[in-house]
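Quick question: what would this complex look like in 3D?
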Amino acid sequence: MSAAEADIEALVLHDITKRYAAVVANDRVSLRVRRGTIHALVGENGAGKSTLAHVAYGLVLADSGTVTIEGRALGRGGPRAALGLGLGLVHQHFMLVPTLTVAENVSLGYEPHRGAWLDRAVMAARVRDAAHTLGFELDPDARAGDLSVGEQQRVEIVRALARGARTLVLDEPTAVLTAQEVDDLFRVLRAWVARGHAVVLVSHRLSEVRALADTITVMRAGRVVAERAAGQADAAELAELIVGRRMAALERRPGKPGAVALALEDVHTAGERDALRGVSLTVRAGEIVGVAGVLGNGQQGLVRAVVGLESTVQGAVRFDGEDVAALGVSARRARGLAYVPEDRLEEGLVPDLSLAENLLLAGRAPEFDPWGRLDRARLQVRASASLAEYDVRPRDATLPARALSGGNQQRLILARELGRMPRWLVLAQPTRGVDVGGAAFLHARILAARDAGAAVLLVSADLDEILLLADRIVVLYAGRVADTLDAAGADARRLGVLMTGGART
Amino acid sequence: MNAVVHRVRRAAGAAALPGVAVLAALAAGAVPLALLGHDPFALYARLFADTFGSGYGFGQVLFKATTLLGTGLAVAVARHAGLFNIGVEGQMALGGLASACAALALGPACPAAIAMPAALLAGAAAGAAWAAIPGWMRAWRGVHEVIATILLNFIAFALAGFVLIRYLADFETLHTAAIPVAARLPRLESLVPALRGAPVNLDLVIVLALCVLAAFVLARTRWGFEVRAVGMSERAAAAAGIPVRRRMFEAMVVSGALAGAAAANFVQGYKHYFEDGFTAEAGFKGIAVALLARSHPIALVPAALLFGALDRGAFVIGGDVPKEFVDVLQALVLLSVVVAMRRRSRRVAPEAA
């Protein structure tokens, strides 16, 4: 690379504006990405990051402004033109054909051929060469649908490289990955830039971005509000820039545990994946017990056994000493259980019901009279109060739940479940996909519920969340409790060892 | 205030569109009519006169709409629980049989205040019992209700036919003896002289009341809410502690009861006996009625009226034009209404994130 070439930036976005009906997704945004660097684009949900990434790739046509890739202007040619200029995009939701092999997926759309015949040797070579360049192995003949999420993502990256991309844009690449897979991804991305190429990383996870990026651009409400060299910015400042206000830093605040409220005694559940193989644990009133573990080691089974969605094969689930293992969800909710499911659109909400009606989905609602008739006026009053208290937007209780953004859906669920003053609270990934400001708000609410005396079981893939909220931490491995730690003395490294089956100290 | 105006305007808009669609379909139908050598205007004038234009014609439309409203409501209730009750036809057939049997068993001495509701409830009970079978299969055994109800239809027809011919039929007929006067539903012509001669009867009032009741129960009661929640998302309903299987089963039983009660229009209100094949596909047409109304109990009324008018209209012009044309016109009208009512897919801005 000559000095002159090095001066040409990998990607220049100049004065990009993009409007959707009432929303300005990008408002005169400019961005310069240098070669050989990882450039992170951070901001809350709805800040305009994904739109900007799509504009760079030609998927979305900006209303005004220009996109320049390696010194050449991207016209209206769309993704094909962007790829031609050397820019590739890895979508948040992968675009692989699950029934095709890795090699077929990588070559999809520009299949090598000899006459009428596909040249499978070239197809396989493309995969191996690209993977080798980035420092990992990938089986060209594996079926894409059989791969893990992390491996599928690598296929996407290999595909971009094989098609000649020198600048790689990734849209929220870590949202779906386990901690180990995130580390692997970062290694791959470092290998990518080590060759003089560039990476644009769209994310709302601050901690990851700080570990990886050379430059961090913060977007808020469609605008660029700051750009920092990674070394210059500390976490508090970035978080503040992202949400646009000084956040009351949530200090780890230990609870004052009372008597044991929830006890599992040697609980087994049926099934192959995520089953419990003899779990015993206790949660005290006024205590948060965090459950850590690599996905699929029994977290779902634990949640479903405590809530009553899955029957236990063996063992007792005790609420205040009473064995509720034979009781259903409704009986457990009647005793004071609240449940925030992992899957908010499948299990947490009924998307087609109104926000107000969704508030009725937590067991015995007071708005039904003894005859089972619904008092709509009363429901409306509670709905207005709940939406205001949890700052759900838009604040219109007649909207269907599907009209809300993910973060607001989660606020609605917590409003419903915490509004009942639960004695037992089961939380599964309570802030997944929620932006920094929203997560801080929900965390404060969860701590308030604990301080009011709830026994809280918190299952989360986000170790920072567990370390922040939990009083004690239980690590699940292969359906059993690998270890129980006092949260004060725990750290991510120690947890990581336990989660992957390492020995206890 | 503003909200009221808005609702009225929206309702008017919702009603106007299908009306325009019907006119468009008739206009399209005029072309083949003219090609066949008919005068479309004369034919349409008569069509109108004999459906909505005269007391007798409208009474006929109402009579046909009554049955379709009953079966449509049966289908709609099951839909709210996420179930497709294809078995309305069979449940209705058994309901009619049970209703006639009850009326005959009570005999002529029984007062109307008992005989009338008893016959109606016997029909509902038979329909409910028959629907309980696929309801149980679906809720607790996981058997798809569409398959179960279709198969049970065959059994229901055979069972009703067998019982009729073996034990009940009048000599050399395919129907039972006439039920006592006390069990018959009076015709509305005694109250509204303009309907003179038309078989529309008290069952219309009963079915309309059931629609209002169903709308209230579904929208304003715990049971209705839980049924709807189950229909929209089984998993979310389960997580909320709603007994999913039980609500499914119950919705299916209620659907069957309504199907059984839908037999009253014919058995108690028109011919006054049970006759083999009296359902005449009303159960299947009820599926179309419910789909057109998107299963809303009140919206079923205009939908049933449209289908009732189509049935009546086919009869009116059936003698003058080829039968195929009647089918074409019916299909044209339905297609245009469905197209007109199809919600315009809302334009949604891509999620800016």
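Answer marked as accepted. The two ends of chain B are 38 Å apart (CA to CA).
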